[in-house]
C-alpha cells in the first residue's frame, strides 16, 4: 500500500525551490498540499515566509500567517522572528519592536534570538540609545544577552567608526557572563586599523591572547593590512613570523596584501623577494598575485621582468586576458608608447601573440600624441600578425584622424566599416555625429 506524502516529504522540495528563487512555484506546491489534504506544518510555513519576506516584503508574508492560522497551524518564535527581521530590513523597526512586545499575547515568550533581531535593526538605524535600553530590557525580562547579542552591537558600532563605544561594550561582556570570541575581536581590530590606530589593534591582539582567544588568519591579515598601510614593513615582517610561531600559516591573502602594498609604494625588489618566498612558506601564487606583481613591474618600467612573469603565468594555466588589460593600462601613458611597442615585439619573440587590448593601448597613445599615421601602420602590422581589430580599434583610429583634421579620411573609413557591417549601429551613429560636429566646427 503506497505511503501518503506528508509535510516532512514536501518540505525539502519547498526549501529547494525557495533557495533557487522560485517562490511562486513553492507556493504552488503549498496549494497542492492543501488540495491533497496534506497539512503543512510550521516548518513549511516558516520556509515560505522567509522566502516571501526576501522576495516580496513582510506585508505580503503576513498574508501567509493568516492562511497558516486558518489551516490550524500555530506560528512559533521562528515564524515571528522571520517577520520581525523583514520589518527591520525594510526600515520598520518600531513595528518590529511592537511585535516583539506583543509576542506573549500570541502565545510566545520572546527569546534571545528575537531580541538580537531587533537589536540588529536598531543598530542599522543607528539608534544606539534604544539598543542599549533593549539590552537592559533583556536582563529585566530574564532573557539574558549572549555573545551574539554583543557581537551584533559591537560589529555595528565598528562599522560606524564608533570604536570607543565598541571597546567599552567589549569590557562589559564579562559582567554579563559572556566571553568575547574571535568574531568580536576581529570586528574591533578591523575598525581600529581602518582608523589607522594600528598600535591599538596590536594591543588588543595581546589582550585577546591573555584572555585565551586565539587569533585566526583573519586577525593577522587585518593587522598586516593596517601595518602595510602605515608603511611599517619591519613590524609587518615580525607579524608574519609570529603567525607561523602561533600555528597560523600565512595564506594567499596574507602574501597578496603585502605584495600589493609593496607594489603601490614602488618597492619592487622587496615585492619580488616576498613573491619568491611563497612556495617555501607553503603558499602557491594565484592569479591575483601574478596580476599584482606584473602590474607593479610594468608601472615601474621593468618590462623584461613583467614579461617573464607573464610567460610563467601562462605556463601555469592562468587566464592572461586580465594581464593584457593591466599591461595596457600601465603602458597607456603618453611617455610609454615606445615601451608598449617593445612589449609587443618581446611578446612575439617569446612565441606569444599580443592581445587586441594591448594593441588598442598603443593605438590610443599614438593618436593622443598626433601620430595617427603611425597608428594606422601599427594596425596593419597587428592584422598581419594575426590579431584582429575590435570595435574599439576602429573607433580609436576614426577619432584620431578626426582630431588631427583628417575629416574626409575619417568619414571614408567609417563608410567602409559601415558597408562591411564591422561596427554595431550604436557606434556608427555616435561616430557619424562626432564627425559632423567636427566638420561644422572647422
Automatic annotation (TrEMBL):
PPR repeat intervals: 6-40, 41-75, 76-110, 111-145, 146-180, 181-215, 216-250, 251-285, 286-320, 355-389
Taxonomy of the source species: Eukaryota, Viridiplantae, Streptophyta, Embryophyta, Tracheophyta
Key word Transit peptide present: yes
Entry keyword set: Repeat, Transit peptide
Origin superkingdom: Eukaryota
Cleaved signal peptide residues: none
TM region positions: none
GO molecular-function term, one example from the UniProt record: mRNA binding
PROSITE patterns in the record: PPR
Name under which the protein is recorded: Pentacotripeptide-repeat region of PRORP domain-containing protein
The keyword Repeat belongs to this UniProt entry's keyword annotation: yes
InterPro entries: PPR_rpt (IPR002885), TPR-like_helical_dom_sf (IPR011990)
Family indicated by similarity: Belongs to the PPR family. P subfamily.
Pfam families: PPR_1, PPR_2
SUPFAM superfamilies per the UniProt record, alphabetical: HCP-like
